[in-house]
Amino acid sequence: MENIIKTTTGTYQGIADHNHTDFLGIPFGYGRRFQRAEEFSMAKFGQNEINKLQYAVHNGVQPMQDEALEQKDDKVHFGENCLNLDICTPDVDGKFPIVIEFFGGGFTKGGNFEKQMSWLDHQNVVHVTPNYRLGLFGWGVVEDGETNVGLSDQIMAVQWVFDNAASIGGDVDNVTLVGLSAGAKSVSALMASNADILDRVKKVILFSGGVQTIRDMTTAKAVVERICQTNHIKTSKDLFNLTDDGLQLAQETALKGHFATNWFGPVIDEDLISANWRDKLLQRVKKSNVKAIISAGSNELKFFEDMSVEKIKAEVLPDLFGKNVDAFCQAFLNEDYTKAELIKMLGTAMYSFPARRLAEFLTQNSDAEIFCNYARVDQGRHGGIVKYLNLPLDDLKIDYRKNRVFMTQLLSEFISTGKPYNETIKYEWPLYDDDRLVLELDPDDIKSVSVINRRYPKDLPWQSYKL
Q: What domains does the chain contain, in order, with CATH numbers?
């Protein structure tokens, strides 16, 4: 099996693994403090370097995050200049569907050193996992800095994949974007952005995330101002002068004790993302005939059940929704509610409602083929469906194994053909249309159910967290 690829950013040798070839840490851009990425070029190191064989067998530099301050693992290195990607391909001489995975982690943690969707490495697809800058490094709105830096990293990675599809064994006309949580929110923002390269994407899979993290500029600036105030930093411009560790420490200090999953993310800057991003999203879906799987769990934030109601109300609700707390509580809670109902509301408002709303927005305003999933695996917890897909079959109960195989096959068919159908069980994932049918995934069953009676308010803000 060939394990050498020649790309626009250099020539690389990978390593064979499980009938696939892995290429790790391939650079696609240069990360500059609070600036959008500059495209990586071997030519900067001299003409001879372009064709020089580089070994792509070790993880590249990972995005700055709290773990960088601990340095527990000598094999993992963190830094601001972390723009590299990993590739797992069945055959560099093939023409397989391409899946670009954007990792989740609340826009504050994660990286391609620990794949969230390892199940994709065992399919007949080219699986690409790029890094992008996190937290303040990628999503902070800083004086004299540029906006949507992390989003620009992601766009550059997508461009690299299209430019090099043939070299990595991929089909340039069959590209799917997939993400979990902040990864799904990233995919949604990319599809709603003004970047023309996204017109070439045919399919998206969103696991527990959508457009709810696209923020207004006021909120984005207020988050950075809060971090500066907590650390007694005079202005956000002073953040340029901190070391990588210093900037990360300032962020860690401000976020300590908070559930800050909504504090960072894409921002409406009238450049990469416009205020009319919903119109842009619709235009792209219609123009490119984009198909989507949109998934949410039945009790996404179940892990808050160990926290007291008083603490949830005093700390978690403001962290998740800011000034939107009252609107979401009134919409999803009765006057006399239990702790279990409060926790269920958190997951509904954060994930289930945005997923359903996005699906209805697309189906009511276009002819897009949208497939929805309501996941009950892992008790419906956040990320439970991806955990379920990744588990080795031997780790599942015997009566759960066939169902896992069927679900994986449905997703693989969607990636390959856009039609999620399973011949073995004669099951076709229902379209989300006027009947509001969704695929309900239980550990031991797959069935179609209607959610037409589960109506959500229409006048709630699209942006979950607002300051």
A: 4-450 (3.40.50.1820)
